[in-house]
């Protein structure tokens, strides 16, 4: 059954998604505060929570995630617990793979969790440890035509990058890619992320703490190594990086 929205957004065909992901529990909501909050209510591993819009979409570091009705994909998945840094990298890889499967876009990854197209953020990933599970939250900008000017990082959507895609196809690809990438070994994830991201090696960056330097790889736990101009190597445990 297709569900209609009050505006001109095409109804989301959740039944088509369910038929392509047999056996998966996919809970779809017209509107939620946040799929992260809903996922916490029942931590059944493998469960997928999708909302057409979020009224309190959460980004990392307490930021908001703008979640306009029908313009994006707002998804949380309940996963078996794993060390968060490497898991975050695998979720970024999965999101990148889902985006490249529905478009010919070149998709970059900015450690730890930003998914970039032409240097602008098109998707973001958050992960929360909840008892013995992880709730992975992924937001993808699909058909927004504008973003507020005061975002901390410039944003884009698939539509703004010239791609029209069905959110149903994108959701199916995303779930399949999350399943695939979260099964990889930590070494494989570190290697794939290093290959996929322009930020891991040789990029001059400023860290949120103010530290500046050139990136020189990931450590075995998935943290970013940065060589400062005085030769000291720092391991970045938290916060984002920006190119300079
Ligand atoms: C980031 O700050 O880059 C992470 C953004 C994560 C947004 C997604 S949208 C689906 C899920 N529900 C939320 O409230 N947040 C995540």
User: What's the arrangement of strands in the largest beta sheet?
Assistant: 1-2-3-7-6-5-4
The ordered H/E elements are HEHEEHEEEEHHEEEEE
Cα shape: globular
Number of DSSP helices? 5
> What's the pLDDT, averaged over the residues?
94
Spatial separation of the terminal alpha carbons: 49 Å
The proportion of residues in beta strands is: 25-35%
| Low-pLDDT runs | 1-6
Structure classification: alpha+beta
| Helicity, as a percent range | 10-25%
The description of the largest β-sheet is: 7 strands, mixed
Cofactors and ligands present?
biotin
Gyration radius from CA atoms, angstroms: 18 Å
Number of strands: 12
Detailed description of the structure:
- By secondary structure, the chain is an alpha+beta fold.
- Helices cover 24% and strands 31% of the residues.
- The chain has five helices and twelve strands.
- It has helices at 14-20, 35-41, 84-102, 167-181, 186-196; strands at residues 26-32, 48-54, 72-80, 107-110, 114-117, 120-130, 133-141, 201-207, 212-218, 224-227, 233-236, 241-243.
- The protein has a seven-stranded mixed beta sheet with strand order 1-2-3-7-6-5-4, with helices on both faces.
- Strand 4 and strand 5 form a beta hairpin.
- Helix 1 runs parallel beside helix 4 and helix 3 (84-102) crosses helix 5 (186-196).
- The longest helix is centred in the middle third of the chain and has 19 residues, at 84-102.
- The protein starts with 13 loop residues before the first helix and ends with a strand.
- The model is unreliable at 1-6 (pLDDT under 50).
- The structure holds biotin (BTN).
- Residues 34-36, 54, 57-60, 63, 65, 74-76, 113, 124-126, 137-139 line the site of biotin.
């Amino acid at each position: 059954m297709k569900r209609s929205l009050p505006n001109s957004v095409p109804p989301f065909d959740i039944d088509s998604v369910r038929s392509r992901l047999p056996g998966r529990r996919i809970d779809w909501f017209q509107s939620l505060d946040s799929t992260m909050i809903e996922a916490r209510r029942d931590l059944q591993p493998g469960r997928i929570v999708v909302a057409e819009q979020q009224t309190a979409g959460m980004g990392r570091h307490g930021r908001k995630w703008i979640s306009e009705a029908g313009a994006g994909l707002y998804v949380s998945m309940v996963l078996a617990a794993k060390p968060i840094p490497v898991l975050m990298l695998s979720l970024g890889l999965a999101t990148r793979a889902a985006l490249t499967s529905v478009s010919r876009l070149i998709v970059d990854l900015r450690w730890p969790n930003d998914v970039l197209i032409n240097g602008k953020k098109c998707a973001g990933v958050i992960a929360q440890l909840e008892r013995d599970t992880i709730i992975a939250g992924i937001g993808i900008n699909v058909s927004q035509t504008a973003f507020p000017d005061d975002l901390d990082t410039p944003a884009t959507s698939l539509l703004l990058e010239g791609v029209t895609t069905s959110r149903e196809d994108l959701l199916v690809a995303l779930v399949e890619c999350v399943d695939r990438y979260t099964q990889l070994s930590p070494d494989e994830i570190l290697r794939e992320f290093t290959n996929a991201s322009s930020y891991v090696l040789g990029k001059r960056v400023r860290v949120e703490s103010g530290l500046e330097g050139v990136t020189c790889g990931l450590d075995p736990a998935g943290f970013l190594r940065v060589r400062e101009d005085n030769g000291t190597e720092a391991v970045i445990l938290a916060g984002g990086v920006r190119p300079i």
